[in-house]
Write a structure and sequence with these properties.
The chain has strands at residues 19-26, 29-36, 45-46, 50-57, 60-64, 67-71, 76-79, 84-88, 95-102, 110-111. It is an all-beta fold. It has one domain: Jelly Rolls, CATH 2.60.120. It has a 5-stranded antiparallel β-sheet, with no helix packed on it. A 5-stranded antiparallel β-sheet has the order 6-5-8-3-10, with no helix packed on it. A hairpin with a 2-residue loop joins strand 5 and strand 6.
Length: 114
């Protein structure tokens, strides 16, 4: 059995400059846990694979294509490949969510201009 806590996983350098930790990255998928501090956000971007987000703690605003919704713990959000998406933490508490990418990407994410 392989077991690790989030604190044991290193923060990866990323273009969003947020706490992102790759907790699992093997075929056929990858799982990253992102923590956004109050006021932090992810830049608008497009991924080359389907993405599922699962909110662990906190409240956040997720934007996918033309849709925008405030979501909280135990919420699953699906984002199809090739569609713009981003996250914002407009609350006063940290927001933590899992990013599950299937299949594990081999192409780069495209950042969009704000």
């Amino acid at each position: 059995m392989i077991s690790k806590t989030l604190d044991e996983v290193a923060i990866v350098d990323n273009p969003h400059h947020v706490d992102a930790r790759n907790v699992y990255s093997r075929e056929p998928l990858s799982i990253t846990v992102i923590t956004l501090k109050p006021g932090q956000s992810l830049k608008r971007h497009i991924t080359p694979v389907d993405v599922a987000f699962y909110v662990l703690t906190g409240l956040g605003v997720v934007e996918i294509g033309d849709d925008q919704e405030q979501v909280g713990p135990d919420t699953l959000i699906e984002s199809p490949k090739g569609i713009m998406h981003c996250w914002r933490n407009e609350s006063s508490d940290p927001l933590r969510f899992m990013v599950i990418k299937v299949p594990r990407p081999t192409e780069k994410t495209v950042l969009l201009e704000d």
